[in-house]
Amino acid sequence: MGFLKQFKETSASVLPIAVLAAVAGLLLNVFGAEGVTLVEFILSVFLVIVGLTIFLIGVEVGLTPIGNQIGAKITQKRSVLVLLLAGFLLGTIITIAEPDVQVLASQVHQINPLIDVRTLTLSISIGVGLFVAFAFLRSILNLSLKLSLAISVILLFTVASLVDEFFVSVAFDSGGATTGPMAVPFIMAMGLGISASKNDDGDSSFGYAGLASIGPVLFVLILGLIFSGDLNSSVVSESASNSNLEVLFDVFKEVVSALAPLVIICALMQVFFLRMPRMQTLRIFIGFFYTFIGLIVFLFAVKCFFMPTATAIGIALASTSKIGLCVLAALLGASVVLAEPAIWVLTRQVEEVTQGHIERKILLIALSLAVSLAVLLSMVRILFSLSLWTFLLPGYILILLFMIKTPTLFVGIAFDSGGVATGPMSSTFLLPFAIGAATGAGGDIATASFGMIGLIAMMPIICIEALGLIYARALRKKEKEGDNE
Question: DSSP state, 31?
Answer without folding.
Answer: T
